[in-house]
Specification:
2 domains; 32% strand; alpha+beta; Alpha-1-antitrypsin, domain 1; 12 helices
Length: 420
């Protein structure tokens, strides 16, 4: 009889619009290593750009599944965090289990080799974690193991080299102690933003895998706090809530998609992060969320133009907390959660299966920007009033890293006053 061993796989993602300065870049024009760094950077970019279309397909497919499961709720998750954790798990998977994981992550294994996938993620983690891109973005992975479980040296070495994995021993027979150890680690790594990630731990757990991403960015054109005022937000036909609405008049990247009946505004953070704010016409959200694919984002990018706008956008904090085992099963990642699982590349024996996948992500949006940016952001006044774009009903928020073309976070904001 097959022994069932449990792996809990936990993922945490965070986006916070900064309340402080982004750490300065270590590289400037006077650094003799600048050229060497740029050449290395370009090589990394080529490796991780191979993953871009697949990671984007996974992100929007996952979004569709989650919106079907929770049609009228706030949604916020980090697709790049989920992809990274499961790609790392695939290092230890074998046979059908491995194929299902990689194909479930939207990789076509006739077009890309497993080795290229792992190298791509390695370079993606490295590029996203570099301060040179102007935003504070930390990614990491950790594994917590019971003392009895002896992982193969090859798995640990490969996971450390490719996924910056940290390994810790923990006593799962003492759930209170192990929960505290894991939660303290995640809280420290996400700068206090994500707390109490694990609870009600199963004492039979022998291994727990966590993946996190922490992002902190400043608006390139910050909003002025004195222009924030309370305004109405229409959650649905029956519900209206009051929200603090930020306001800014200026030139913004803008596009109206007639086919999908939605308004797109793109804002930039200092550095390489950018956000698409997508406001569907009333009654058009379902159509948008079920048809959204990477090609549509590309079309928006190609058609954006600078337009003078009076922009109103809510200030809010939300978090998403998901048990995503069923979602991933619907996307073809099935065996790893059953007794058919083959994770023998982790321990050399085929007794492991994943019991639970939890993903937690948090989002804060406020007016903040760097002082330097605030000093140069002059308001544009015209004799005729510019059109008003007000995000006062459910909208989408898509956060990308321009250097790697990675989808960092996807959010659907139905009610900005609901924190989760």
């Amino acid at each position: 009889m097959k022994i069932t061993v449990y792996i809990s796989l936990l993922l945490a993602g965070l986006h916070a619009v900064a309340h402080g300065q982004v750490p300065p870049s270590h590289h400037n024009g006077h650094d003799p290593n600048e050229h060497k760094y740029r050449m290395h950077h370009r090589g990394e970019a080529i490796a991780c750009l191979k993953l871009v279309p697949n990671n984007a397909d996974f992100a929007f497919q996952f979004f569709k599944e989650v919106t079907l499961e929770a049609p009228n709720k706030n949604i916020f998750f980090s697709p790049v965090s989920i992809s990274t954790a499961f790609a790392m798990l695939a290092l230890g998977a074998r046979s059908t289990t491995q194929t299902q994981i990689l194909e479930g992550l939207s990789f076509n294994l006739t077009e890309i080799q497993e080795k290229e996938i792992h190298e791509g993620f390695h370079n993606l983690i490295h590029m996203l974690s570099h301060p040179e891109n102007g935003v504070q973005l930390n990614m990491g992975n950790a594994i917590f193991l019971t003392e009895k479980l002896k992982p193969l040296k090859k798995f640990l070495d490969d996971a450390k080299a490719l996924y910056q994995l940290e390994a810790f021993t923990t006593d799962f027979n003492n759930p209170t102690k192990s929960e505290k150890q894991i939660n303290d680690y995640i809280e420290r790594k996400t700068h206090g933003k994500i707390t109490h990630l694990v609870k009600d731990m199963d004492p039979q757990t022998v291994m727990l895998l966590t993946s996190f991403v922490f992002f902190k960015g400043n608006w390139e054109k910050p909003f002025k706090p004195e222009h924030t005022e309370e305004r109405e937000f229409c959650v649905d036909a029956e519900t209206t809530v009051k929200v603090p609405m930020m306001h800014q008049t200026g030139r913004f990247d803008f596009y109206f998609d007639e086919e999908l009946s939605c308004t797109v505004v793109r804002l930039h953070y200092n550095g390489s992060a950018t956000v698409f704010l997508v406001l569907p016409a009333k009654g058009k959200m379902k159509q948008l969320e079920q048809t959204l694919v990477k090609e549509i984002i590309q079309e928006w990018s190609d058609h954006l133009f600078q337009r003078l706008l009076s922009l109103y956008f809510p200030k809010f904090s939300i978090s998403g907390n998901y048990e995503i085992t069923n979602t991933l099963s619907k996307m073809g990642i099935v065996d790893v959660f059953t007794d058919q699982a083959d994770l023998s590349g982790i321990t050399g024996a085929p007794e492991l299966k994943v019991s639970k996948v939890v993903h937690k992500a948090a989002l804060d949006v406020d007016e903040s920007g760097t002082e330097a940016a605030a000093a140069t952001a002059a308001e544009i006044m015209t004799t005729s009033l510019p059109p008003i774009i007000e995000f006062n009903r459910p909208f989408l928020m898509l956060i990308f890293d321009r250097d790697t073309n990675s989808t960092l976070f996807i959010g659907k904001i139905v009610n900005p006053t609901m924190t989760s």
